[in-house]
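L-lactate dehydrogenase (cytochrome): structure tokens wanted.
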Amino acid sequence: PPIDTIINAQDFEDIAERTTTKKTWAFYSSASTDCITRDKNKEYFGRIWFRPRLLRSVGKVSTRSTMLGHDIGLPVFVSPSAMAKMIHPDGEKGIARGCVEDRVPQCVSTNASFPIEEIIPSVPKEAKHPFFFQLYVNKDRAQSEKLLRHVRSLGIDTVFVTIDGPVQGKREADERVKADESLSTPMSGQKAKNDRRGGGIGRIMGNYIDPNFTWNEFAWLRTHWHGKIVVKGVQCWQDAKRCADEGMDGVLLSNHGGRNLDNAPPVIMTLLECQMNCPEIFSQIEVFVDGGVRRGGDVLKCLCLGATAVGFGRPFLYALNYGEEGVQHFIDIIKQELEIAMALIGITDLRQCDASYVNTAELDPL
Ligand code: FNR
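Answer:
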């Protein structure tokens, strides 16, 4: 269908389901076992209600903000996801190009389909576009050290360390469809293959990730990385607080879009849990959220509950079906939805967001 008939994230998803290969759909859309967390991530946003304040002159609304020291056009970023090339030959480069105009930061996965040195130059240098790098810690530490040096040499100042997949979830839809064995991820040096358990790409290509990585080893990381650190995949307030206590720069509350631990809590509950139990962390470090965010209004709810910015995973991949134009169109949609929701709750600037604009009674007590 023509791109101008697409008016929300769900449209992109429906079209992706109909038009991509079986394997691409299985890998992108799948989540672990019964997919409860994947689906509840999204559904639980519907249990937070706005508390609009009216008659406030909202003719001019700005979605500008900052994230980890970068100016951004809206409080949204591209969550790192593996192998964008499966849906479009431009892969992560297309995502980057689609993000430039609105200054939407892109976090590039260790499992990206292009090496990062090819992704960064796909946008004009003058744009100073914010890129981050997502690290999966390799069992072979020397490999991670090399990658970190490389990433730093390219000017990246922040690494997101993903901790929610010491082992990979059992993603049944992905296991059921055979993997194309020509697929590879250059930065982690993995190749797809099929085995007796199935063709699950995440499982097979995530084999290098160290399941024995612990809190203690952030000391190792800090000797090899002098930039900012965000811990991705935190799912309870105690771990979020520990991130703040250990002097991380940020924490990304995330359950990997339900792809690892099924029945992990919907991410908005984790955010609320942090608000209730360790509200001080919101002024100590930047708190991010991803998983099931599909509307500008969802973004606004997260910001009212203390998040600095919100990540989208699958929606960017589905938008990339239309190349960079699709990505840009998707960002436009989210930006418009956010502007409308801001005006309708009675704010014109994101700094005005606070918990008084949401009613969380349906999700309390935790
Ligand atoms: C991911 N995600 C992910 N996360 C990460 O840290 N490294 C990675 O390589 C990947 N790869 C990946 C591939 C695919 C196909 C998906 C869908 C997701 C998780 C991602 O960063 C994010 O946490 C979720 O996608 C957020 O949920 P939504 O927005 O997809 O619902």
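The first strand starts at residue 49 and ends at 50. The two ends are 43 Å apart (CA to CA).

Cheers.
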